[in-house]
Amino acid sequence: MSLPETLDVQAALIYFHAYMYGPYQGRVRLFRQRGLAPRMVMSEDWEVFASILLKATGTASRSGPDLGEHEVKSAVDGGSFEYQYHRNSWKEKLAADRCAGHVFIWHRDELSHVEVWFCGGSDLNEHFEAWEAEAPYSEGGQQRFRKNIGAGWVRENATLLLRIVDGEAAYEWPVGDRFNAG
């Protein structure tokens, strides 16, 4: 899977402001006033955000990528990205992950800094081969097989598509009109 041909940064930022960044800032204030720590946005919010950014449609299936041709992962900045494989569908999901594009989204400082990275499934083949070689369900037992792609690997091997700072695009790859086509 190669890099996306177009990105809709403007529409993705509209969603980000309306449903993620703005509401979360309000929640942070309320939680802090009460001595509590709010949780970050849900992974499904990042899937919708990536769907808009990549102009891709989601899928309800858990045995394939989140957005048909793209798998979306999110983590606190510098954290690793978790891949989960269920006992009954792990081989199908792993095969689909090999063909999909992978969107890695980091966030920090109450969503004031967000980075979106991308790589093709073939770029992750070394990980997928190692995970498959573990034959995770040959002994029975566990329901889910969990593995991670580390922050260092993503920074060294994936392509930065978008950086958002204080709610605004600070970097778009590559800068140009074709990446803002609505």
Descriptive key words:
182 residues, five-stranded mixed sheet, 35% helix, 26% strand, globular
Brief characterization of the structure:
With 182 residues, the protein is an alpha+beta fold. The protein contains 5 helices and 7 strands; from the N terminus they run H-H-E-E-H-E-E-H-E-H-E-E. A hairpin with a 2-residue loop joins strand 6 (159-165) and strand 7 (168-172).
Cα(first) to Cα(last) distance is 22 Å
User: Total number of β-strand segments?
Assistant: 7
**Radius of gyration (Å):** 17 Å
- The succession of helices and strands, N to C, reads HHEEHEEHEHEE
> On the 0-100 scale, what is the average pLDDT?
86
Which shape, going by the Cα principal axes?
A: globular
Which strand order spans the largest sheet, edge to edge or round the barrel?
A: 1-3-4-6-7
> How many distinct helices?
5
What does this molecule look like?
The protein has 182 residues and is of the alpha+beta class. The strands form two sheets. It has a five-stranded mixed sheet. The protein is globular and about 50 Å long. It is built from five helices and seven strands; from the N terminus they run ααββαββαβαββ.
Write the layout of secondary structure elements.
Elements: H1 9-33, H2 43-54, E1 70-76, E2 81-86, H3 90-99, E3 101-108, E4 113-120, H4 125-133, E5 144-149, H5 151-157, E6 159-165, E7 168-172
Parallel strand pairs: 1-3
Antiparallel strand pairs: 2-5, 3-4, 4-6, 6-7
Helix pairs in contact: 1-2
